[in-house]
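Write out a sequence, fold above all:
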Amino acid sequence: MTEKKRIYIFTDGSCDTTSGHGGWAYLLTYNGSQKEAAGYEGNTTNNRMELTAAVRALQALKEPCNVTLTTDSQYLKKAFTDGWLKNWQKNGWRTANKAPVKNKDLWLELLELSKQHELNWDWTKGHAGHPENERVDELALKARKERRTI
């Protein structure tokens, strides 16, 4: 049996809450090489951009991989690591307060993508000097400000 490729993914989202302009970015590292991408969306939220970054990064993988995904979003990480997603599904996509789960479309996509990979979640504090996190923050902000895919 062939061993899966070991991929490290770093993601970030950016949103101007006043205008609703948002950006997402990811950085993939494998065997010393890197690939990065970023994009723009209007009328969005920071959480949607965080989720979109993870979706786009996982979509960029061409085969099942062993992935460590590092994010500065507790919302994204804890949904997977603290059982939030399982509870939301069990409760008919409702939160503990019985409100509809926001961003259900992206959560569903992430769930499907996560089935294709061995996925491990890691969290880093944003704006704290983590080089890859700083890079994806810079890319997401640039995409948002320039309103374009990079």
About this structure: The chain is about 40% helix and 30% strand. The chain has a mean pLDDT of 96. The helical segments are 46-59, 74-81, 84-90, 104-115, 131-146.
